[in-house]
Amino acid sequence: MQTLTVLGSTGSIGTQTLDVVARHPQRYRVFALTAQERVEELAQQCQRFQPRYAVIAQAHADALRQALQARGVGGTEVLGGPQALCEVAAAPEVDAVMAAIVGAAGLAPCVAAARSGKKLLLANKEALVLGGEWFMQAVRAGGATLLPIDSEHSALFQCLPESPLVWAQRVEKIILTASGGPFRQRDPASLASVTPEQACAHPNWVMGQKISVDSATMMNKALEVIEAHYLFGLAPEQIEVVIHPQSVIHSMVQMRDRSVLAQLGTPDMRVPIAYGLSWPERIESGAEALDFARMGALSFEAPTRERFPALFLAWEALAGPVGSTAVLNAANEVAVQAFLQRRLRFDRIHAVNAGTLQALSPSKPNGLEDLLALDAQARALAQAQLQRWKD
Ligand code: NAD
Ligand code: MG
After folding, report:
1. Residue segments in the chain with a per-residue pLDDT below the cut of 50
2. How would you classify the pairing of strands 119-122 and 171-178?
3. 15 lines ligand 1 (CB under 6 A)
4. Which helix (H) or strand (E) holds 233?
5. Around ion ligand 2, which residues have CB less than 5 A away?
6. Any known ligand binding at 296?
7. Domains, the chain
8. What is the DSSP letter of 21?
9. Full-prediction pTM beyond 0.95?
């Protein structure tokens, strides 16, 4: 029996995690569930999974207590605020933490889980892009096990040799696949008029709003290139991206002898979630099997700078001073939020990101406080860029 904390349990990854957990009541017990503001959904999850703790933003804590009382849920204690997220991630009862908060807000609880040696299931890619090598050191120092949940990185992890000690010796490069998102074939000149609804309508995956917009700009793949660099310790030039619109191959590893290993499956996040939960074993995920006879052709194309300039910021940030990936992540969070609130044009998200990355040359962050200060500084600069790009 493993005891779990699910950070961001009301989101797309959080709810799919609970879907897998519910299939295996003998294997997993829920210790804590957390959400930012969806009181009713969190209360419903508490009724079903009976966690010891439920964490929500302080402003909604009383409402959650009332909702739990109304449902007759007596065994769940409500905690409020960001510090409580760290507490339920680090509690001694917990074996594994699903990190499914979106954005930089997830860094501190991820680090708390890492420092207390948990099995850390990382969906929250922004936390790693912000924390970078320092985050990986915290994982090592805490004796934690970091398992990627992002489908591409789960695919790579499944294809890589078992021992990380031989990765550098055997692996020539990794190839991340990208679906191309909803605008793969749209005239780049027409992207100015894209609405949040259009950007969030992904052809293959149903996801939270932020990652959906990132998929449409391909900043999601840029974040994933950076994520792969830190996770697998490969040089930026050993990481490649190919567009594969069917999302059947989730990523590939090319060995020194030019043999290529790929991981395939239907586009269903419950597969990498189940793999992270059960690793190194395998459990039922609820996903449909691939049907090769009905699948049709798989196709591939190279991403171009003209259509997807955001992608190339990944290598630019990795070539910059330590902390540059944190700057890029912060700018993008600000730009995406402004776009979702209809304060920034879709085609100017890139301008804000590139402009902020250029404007700020960070000094090496040392520790969580430094990283959060750098994140705040980059956000302030991105806000200034927003003014510049206002209609
Ligand atoms: P989502 O928006 O659906 O859910 C986010 C969750 O985080 C919610 O439970 C929300 O309450 C919580 N949250 C948001 N802001 C918070 C804050 N400031 N403090 C505490 N909690 C907060 O997002 P999602 O699509 O589930 O994505 C979660 C993470 O997983 C992201 O980092 C995303 O990039 C990554 N990811 C998602 C998918 C997917 O298919 N959805 C795939 C790969 C990776
Ligand atoms: Mg992904």
Report:
1. none
2. unpaired
3. no
4. none
5. 150-152
6. no
7. 2-149 (3.40.50.720)
8. H
9. yes
Q: How far is the CA of 282 from the centre of ligand 1 (A)?
A: 25
CB atoms within 10 A of CB 44: 15
Please tell me the distance between residue 116's alpha carbon and the centre of ligand 1 in angstroms: 22
Q: How far away, in angstroms, is 72 Cα from ligand 2 center? A: 38
First to last CA, the chain: 55
Ligand 1 pocket residue status of 52, Cβ below 6 Å: no
The full DSSP string for 305-340 is TTT-HHHHHHHHHHHSSTTHHHHHHHHHHHHHHHHH
DSSP 79-119: EESHHHHHHHHH-TT-SEEEE---SGGGHHHHHHHHHTT-E
Residue 213 identity (one-letter amino acid): V
Q: What is the pLDDT of residues 193-211, one digit of tens each?
A: 999 999 999 888 889 999 9
How far is the C-alpha of 113 from the C-alpha of 144, rounded, in Å? 8
Instruction: Tell me if 205 CB under 6 Å of ligand 1.
Output: yes
pLDDT of residue 206: 84
Single-letter amino acid, residue 259: S
Instruction: Tell how far CA 138 is from the center of its chain.
Output: 18
Backbone angles phi, psi at 285, to 5 degrees: -110, -20
**256 CB burial (10 A radius; 0-12, 13-18, 19+):** exposed
**Measured from the CB, is residue 223 less than 6 Å from ligand 1?**
no
The Cα-based distances of 181 to 113, 159, 170, 235, 281 in angstroms read 32, 24, 32, 26, 32
* Three-class SS state of 249: strand
Half-sphere exposure of 89 (CA within 13 A, CB side): 31
The β-bridge relationship of strands 249-255 and 260-264 is: antiparallel
Reading across the β-sheet that carries 145-148, which strands appear in turn? Answer: 77-80, 53-56, 28-34, 2-7, 96-99, 119-122, 145-148
